[in-house]
Amino acid sequence: MARPLRETAELNLYRHKSTIKILVGLIAILIVVVSVYYNNFIVHLLKERERNTVDVFARSIEFMAEQGDHANVTFINEHIIKSNTTIPVILADQMGEPTLDYLNLDIPENLSEAELYEMLRAEINNMRAENEPIQVVYRNAANQVEHVEYVFYRNSDLLRQLSYYPFIQLSTILLFGALAYLAFSYSRTAEQNRVWVGLAKETAHQLGTPLSSLMAWLEYLRADERTMQHEALPEMAKDLEKLHLITERFSNIGSVPVLELTSVPEMIHSSVSYLQKRISTKVKITVSTVGNDLRAQLNPHLFGWVIENVIKNAVDAMSGIGTIDIRIAPGNNNTVYIDIVDNGKGISKSNLKKVFEPGFTTKKRGWGLGLTLAKRIIDHYHRGRIYVKHSEPNVGTTFRIVLRS
Ligand SMILES: Nc1ncnc2c1ncn2[C@@H]1O[C@H](COP(=O)(O)OP(=O)(O)O)[C@@H](O)[C@H]1O
Ligand SMILES: [Mg+2]
What we know:
By secondary structure, the chain is α+β, with helices and mostly antiparallel strands. Helices cover 55% and strands 19% of the residues. The strands form three sheets. The chain has a five-stranded mixed beta sheet with strand order 6-8-9-11-10, covered by helices on one side. A four-stranded antiparallel beta sheet has the order 2-1-4-3.
């Protein structure tokens, strides 16, 4: 049988999805690391430059003190000392006590002298935590050290903002990325829903007309004396019954299905007796129930489809011979557990996460849609859960279905 769909680019892309995710993640981490690193580098450069500026400032004070009242002092004062309009500085004495020489600090005007000193002292403590102060050395005419002072300084606002910048930028991008992802995945889910529903409705609709016509023909043959005894009639009736069931399933998945409080053991027994006739007699299906009156909200047509898919997979996992145990038991919080235990070849660890993905199959003739459909029916239409409870290569697999009662 030709299966052109299997080779389409889309399915291939789907199979590489996790690789793509990892790649995108790695690139994102690389961008974060590079931008934080580069920003740190710039912050470091700027910090050095600011220290240089403060150093020139300190040297100028020394120079002015040496020159006394000389003429070029004015130039230095105007063009070097006052040119610093961004870095907050305080000149302090030998003991680290502030003098009243400071620049670029936000200090209210009407402070008393005591309050002002208090403020400057507090500011000096902050500055000390940020940067080592720079010494100013005063010498006498004989070039001996007379006394020293200290220039305390703080990073400029520019430097401060620059060090926060990558975090603000990256968190903005992250937030935007998360919102975009949510929006896209929401619209993708909505689109998938439309496809499921549309395709199912269309199929049910298209099957409907020839089916009712075939039923009418069957009635006609049953009524005609010449054919009413024909051995083909009961077989045709069975096949029509089956076609009818398929149509019913598609029409249920294409609309909001009606859930009824149904006895789970009865439902399972009827599915199993139907299936047992259609699979090898060497595969034995047993059903056991713990507790009584296990009922759950379910749609018989859709739920039967799920059981059929899971059991068919279990049969496929065996080489023609084996056992399938279906165990029904009460679960937590008003639920019913249905465990389907097989002794087939099991699922490898790396495939465990993928079995419910559309298009995932390990079979030559598989479509990889059976479990996708089962999951959709259980999650979406029954608000329950289906998952691989346990699987061990060459030992077997247990699927668990959780239904609400
Ligand atoms: N009971 C099981 N034991 C082993 N493998 C399983 C079992 N059920 C499902 N699988 C694996 O999950 C895959 C997907 O199953 P399914 O969605 O029904 O698609 P398909 O049956 O067309 O392959 C199967 O190809 C198989 O590899
Ligand atoms: Mg299958």
